[in-house]
Amino acid sequence: MTSYGRSPRRSLAVVALAGVLASQSVLLTSSVALAQATDAKTALAAGDKAARAKDWAAALAQYEAANKAQPSAEALEGVANARYQAKQDAEAYAAYDEYLKTYGAKVAKPKKTAAEARLKELDGRTGTLSVSVSEAGAQISVDDKPVGTTPLAAPLRLAVGPHRVRIAKDGFTPVDQVPNVVAGVAAKVDVKLEALSSKGKLVVKEKTGRPIRVLVDGVDMGDAPWRGELEAGQHEVSGRGPAAAAAPEKVTIERAKTHEVELVASSTVAPLKITTSDGKGLVYLDDKLVGEGSFAADVPAGTHKLRVTREGYDPYEEEVVLVEKQPRSVAVTLKLAATIDTRAVKAEDRGLEGIYGGFGLLGTLLPGGLGSSIQRECERNPKPPGLTSCSGEGGSTGAGLNGFLGYHWDPIGVELFLGAHYDQAKIQRDWTQADVGLGIGRDPARTEEFTIRRVGGYAAFRLRLTLQTKRVRFVVPVGVGLSYRTMLLERRVTLASDPAVKGGYLPDSQSYLAPVLSLDPGVQFRLTDTTSVGAGLSIMLESPNPFGSIPTTPIDNTQRLGPNTLTTSPYELARDAQIYVGPYIGMMFGP
Fold first, then answer.
1. What number is the average pLDDT over the span 69-92?
2. Residue 395: which of 67, 47, 5, 38 has the closest Cα?
């Protein structure tokens, strides 16, 4: 006895896979459309109930939900009426206007007339506001609610009274205006946005009141106190007078901000020059950064604290005593740090937390078969009268693809699992001439070849346990969900006494919905921290019995085999537990 499925045709697998993808797409599209229609109907009913109770806030929320799920004249009319009753005049005007433009030609005349009357009434309680802005792409908000970006497609419809209008765009100074909207009058706001300056402000004062000139980056800017604008960035500020000088300071100017510096001028100065041996290192004088690698300037006479630092070197510190008008030069040689931590940095283990996803390809066997009535007749003991032998016995083979997306908290993840699958089984039965007792004559001796094809998809919510080493991950995903499958039967019959006489039978397809249990233990090899390839064993269990949707073909009394009548009873294509087992390969990305 030979078993079908151990040598499936390669071309059939290609056709089957294309069918899986097409069927899955149609199934998902139909399911989404049905769910949206159901949600819209439920929300619409809830909105009507809230409207009868005059709970306009709840009614508005339900009508908007219904219109979002499935746009309709009833939902949009409900939105408009709820906003009208809630005194949201501008929003109600927009809703009635959209209702008439979209559905005015289709709705009943009384509804259209009522909407037009409301629209006319609201026109007298609202006005329009045109906003013209010199820059495109500016964000416009009215009463702290965003209404769009410039240029606006049409004037804004607003309730009568004052409104706060704000126009903002990156790189420009925001503008606020408060126009007053009058019923039946077209108000207008014209705004020219001013670009933000790339400069900041600097204020320089001398602490003791001595007269000095302010120097910025070596340029004489004028007498202290001095105020002016500078390009954002770092600058050097110092002071110099006829008998006094202020040590230079490094300042950082930020765009659109004001920075203040207070210089201290000394009546006596001395030239000071500081250099490092290799021209590197940060030079600090009295804890103020004055240069990098070198420094030269007139400094007030007296004692000053010199410090030079550089990463990887011991800091250099010295007290420098300056005498009026006597030049002083200091040469600094930095020494490598006495101790350097050369311990290897331990790599941080990457935690299993974050979004992940992946896909897989699988092959399947149904070792227990489909449980079809054709298979069960072959397994009966004794066999039905006239049935002499069977081959194939209902075992099925197939292939599929799946994908998953979830979020992981070490070591457990929660994921949505989707897949598509195709499988088929073949059974051959040999009959002698027999009377089947249905009153239509004796069936001739014959050979029947059955092919049962099945295509469909499934969805499940699963938990994923992940344990990992540096290179290997062990994963055990398990979960429950639903599957939807369509089955097609093909029967070919050959007359035993004359092989040239053949018959065929191809009834309509049969579908079923079933609960499904998914378990995919496997091993993954990590290519990178977030990418791995793996293989494992796919186990899936489902049954059409719980929902009472056993796929069954109808009885057909029109079948003949040449000159002979041929009984064609109803065939159950699948029953009881359907256990799919097979290997899979795939990839996983993240966390």
1. 85
2. 5
